[in-house]
Amino acid sequence: MNQEVIDYRELAEKLIQKCKNKGADEAEVLIETGRNLNLEVRNGEIETVEESSSRGVGLRVFWGGRMAFSHCNDFSNNALDNTVAAAMDYARTTTPDENNVLPKDEGATPVDGLHDPEIAQTSMEKKIELAGLVEKLAMKDPRITKSAGARYGEGESETIIANSNGFFKGYKASACFYGVSVVAEKGEQKSSGGEYCQRRFFNDLETAEKIAEKAAMDAYEMLDSRMVETQKASVIFAPDVAPAILGGILGAINGERVLQGASFLRNSLDKTIASELLTIIDDGTKPRGVASKPFDGEGVPTQKRVIIDEGVLKGFMYNTIVAKRAGVKSTGNASRSGYSSLPGIGPHNFYVAAGKSDPEEIVRATKKGLYLKGVTGYGINPVTGNFSGGASGFWIENGKFAFPVKGLTVAGRAAEMLNGIDMVGSDLDLNKSFTAPTFRIDLMQIGGK
Amino acid sequence: MRLTSDFIGDIPRRKFLQMSMKGGIALAATPALMSQLMSCRGTQDISEDIKMDSQLLDKTIRRALAKGGEFADIYVENRVSREILMEESKFKSAVFGINQGAGVRVISGDKTGFAYTDAINENNLLRAAEVASYAATGSKTTPPVNIHEQERASFISVQLPLEGIADERRLEVMRRANQAALDYDPKIKMASISYYDEIRGRTVANSEGLLVSDALPLLFFIVQALGVGEKARHLSRERLSRHSGFEMFDDVTPEDVARRAAREAIAMLEAKDAPAGIMDIVMQNGWGGVLVHEAVGHPLEADNIAKKIGAFTGKLGKKVASDVFTMVDDGSLPNMRGTTNFDDEGTQMKRNVLIKDGVLQKYMTDILSAKQINQERTGNGRRESYRHLPIPRMTNTFIDQGKDDPEDIVASTKDGLYVQSLSGGSVNPITGIFNFTCREAYLIENGKKTTPVKGATLIGSCLDIISKTDAVGNDLAFGPGICGKGQECEVSAGQPTVRIKGINVGGSQARRRS
């Protein structure tokens, strides 16, 4: 839905001035506007159409070393005045801290391909058709008995950050995705599967055939699954389960958690923490990357950083305040989940670098083990390094998939798991933002019968 | 330095907060509509204004049904929130938020059209109605009934209204919790105290003639404590949350919450690796109910039942659990975190017995799924905000009180795992496969709770565990949580102490077999 056009530079400058007039030493304005479309198709019929646009403003104020934040989604003068007053009022409640500062202007990293103007130009019919097609193709396999629905979604947003150090910067971004979830049934057995594809550009979306095939396979290949005995064996992580490993590492390299001692990697900087086959990268600059951006949630330019280099931990992640406290420079990792949130610390495109092994070769080289296709739970605990999850996938015997397994658990400690990585695949898909190629851990505890 | 201020801008604070509750800053933009809608409960002298606003709501609903459709509703929301974080004994940040908007929905058969707007005025409401109406294009219109205000019983009582609480009192409960956690044991090196409160004003109007509104207060208080031992570290968590006034902290003190968190952090420093494999578990009363919330509750939400893909499809009236298993969802329990006066579609909250003595009684519905499966509306139509469609969600969900003495349950378990608390879990509602992560657990050896063990995953399938529940205690208790299902909502989960025979535990240690 249309909203009246606003000059955001003028608005941002006005808000910063209002904060200063109320006594703020420094102030920051974050403005976000966006629109969304969501379509759901089930059994060939359009089931849900959701359309919306929204916008909001977040104000961060600093007063005598104290920091407070307020947000609102009403752009009338009166509402904005009250939002300024609320932030200033709340600044009186927090504790002064010399580290409470805003970044200086260091420009922005040029990143190509964040916004696709074509998405909005593409007709609604085409988008509905795409969701309908992917569902139809996924249902083609006779083992697939029901559709849990196909979905198409898109969003466009504009993010603007200005602060009293004199900068004003913004960018437009887009994203679109589609995919389908299906159910395979055999007697009393039920197995669900799904596949989705997300891109910055509409024309970069994968074909419906490819998505449908993967969704159907994801469901039917888990029929007739079994349990195995409790034992130690090799575990191969498929690319889709990479977050199980990456999430805990991410929590443990959060600069603030490190300072607080709440990280299993707190004493590991420049030390070997993993097999030399493991390299992890955080990249905010990749063209068309789904998590790329020219600057972070405070306006600090993004970069491409090696976090773990051939097993050696090279750095933690920081936003401006935590970096000042640690005596380092912000790494451009201030993360925000919208105009209503304070800057935290988070990644951009965060991934395990590709290795040399053919993924099929990794399976062939495994005498006995688990090919992990699905893992549930919280992954590695960032404080203790403890890992435990529910597991499903395939049991491998003599280098071949023997049968599907589910209802198992896998567990271990981060140090042993990371050092136990003995093969890394070449199959990295950088269209995803939180991902890894196939990799193998030599030995893990598997819980079963 | 004055920590509290009586003023926000030029408006006296108390007045400002009163207005916030009624529609807050929306007053500035939309003087008539929001303020009156949010305050229409219990006041008689503004009936003329309500009538005027009702006319706009009627007009919006008529526009929504202009192209076809059998049902339309409009949901108007205004949320004023405060969030303060204390870490390392410092008040690190304070956040004040005001969000408002309205969502318009049209249902035609199985089709739903939905649109929302942030700015609440006639133009935007009618435009949202227009966008939502496309989904129903060409279908037959069920003529809307003009709305009239309806009364709903209230399950939320307030003695100390949040809008009358000075910020200094919020800071004070946080300081007290921080101190109590640090004082508990020198091994507690850090506490993190998170305070959140909000007042969510809601108005729901629909084409069946319904008009209801209220303002829900919510408090959420979280204490985390970092225990540091010679070899181990543990970050614990304890939460307290209610739909109530500030008197919540008289009932359960900040010190109580902090000491519980600190106790866990210290106890778990001695934890050994958990065993792996299938074992009997005893789950302590309280938040452990999240197990049935996930494993049984989600699969009983009617949206997947209507799609005929849910794990409990076709099982109504059938025996699905052991005789000792009765499960309830009750959104009318006074002041609890999952309680509201009516759901986000305006349906009255009530006690719904889902499984009685092992037999499946009903599914949890919203308006759409109730129609699709031809069942009553159970008051489970909930939404995170005006930006989300209502979907079937749980409220306060629990295994009902049993007859067993909790101590006997442990004593009669030869070997197993005693799960004192869970972090949380998830379920695939189609296959019913669930997982949970233990926060605090102990081995049971020869009928006694012994060594603490590290956070292990528990996994299994929903139909399996409810038939394997063989002992249910007489000590029903609840815990607060956040439930995510594409959108978040506040819930409670509860249970008495229960025993489940044979569940797969994901420890990192091969199990000693006796």
Please compute the radius of gyration of chain B using only Cα atoms.
Answer: 24 Å
Helix content of chain A: 10-25%
Q: Which ranges of chain B are low-confidence, i.e. pLDDT below 50, for 5 or more consecutive residues?
A: 1-52
- Average per-residue pLDDT of chain B, rounded, comes to 87
Query: How many helices of chain B does DSSP assign?
Result: 13
Shape of chain A: globular
Q: Name the chain pair with the biggest interface and residue counts per chain.
A: A-B, 86 and 93 residues
Largest pleated sheet of chain A: 6 strands, antiparallel
Helix percent band of chain B:
10-25%
Number of strands of chain A: 19
Q: How many beta-strand segments of chain B?
A: 24
Q: Tell me what portion of residues of chain A adopts beta-strand conformation.
A: 35-45%
What are its keywords?
heterodimer; A: 449 residues; alpha+beta; PmbA/TldD fold; 2 domains; five-stranded mixed barrel; 10 helices; globular; B: alpha+beta; 13 helices; 37% strand; disordered N terminus
Can you give a write-up of this model?
The complex is a heterodimer of chains A (449) and B (514). Chain A has helices at 8-21, 77-91, 118-121, 124-138, 208-220, 243-252, 255-260, 320-326, 359-364, 414-419, and strands spanning 26-42, 45-63, 66-72, 144-163, 167-186, 189-199, 231-237, 280-283, 304-309, 312-313, 334-335, 344-345, 349-352, 368-376, 386-397, 400-413, 421-424, 434-435, 439-447. The longest helix of chain A is centred in the first third of the chain and has 15 residues, at 77-91. Chain A is of the alpha+beta class. The model of chain A has no long low-confidence stretch (mean pLDDT 95). In chain A, helix 4 packs parallel to helix 5 (208-220). Chain A has a six-stranded antiparallel β-sheet with strand order 3-2-1-4-5-6. In chain A, strands 7-14-15-16-19 form a five-stranded mixed beta barrel. Chain A is built from ten helices and 19 strands. Chain A folds into two domains: 8-219, PmbA/TldD fold (2-Layer Sandwich); 225-449, no CATH class. Mean pLDDT of chain B is 87; it is low at 1-52. Chain B is globular. The longest helix of chain B is centred in the first third of the chain and has 18 residues, at 47-64. In chain B, the strands form five sheets. In chain B, strands 3, 4, 5, 6, 7, 8 and 9 form a seven-stranded mixed β-sheet that branches. A six-stranded mixed β-sheet of chain B has the order 13-12-11-16-23-22, with helices on one face. Chain B has a five-stranded mixed barrel with strand order 10-17-18-20-24. Chain B has 514 residues and is α+β, with helices and mostly antiparallel strands. Chain B folds into two domains: 7-219, PmbA/TldD superfamily (PmbA/TldD fold, 2-Layer Sandwich); 276-506, no CATH class. Chain B is built from 13 helices and 24 strands. In chain B, 60% of the residues are buried. At the A-B interface, strand 2, strand 3, helix 2, strand 4 and strand 6 of A face strand 1, helix 2, strand 4, strand 5 and helix 5 of B. Strand 2 (45-63) of chain A pairs parallel with strand 5 of chain B, so a sheet runs across the interface.
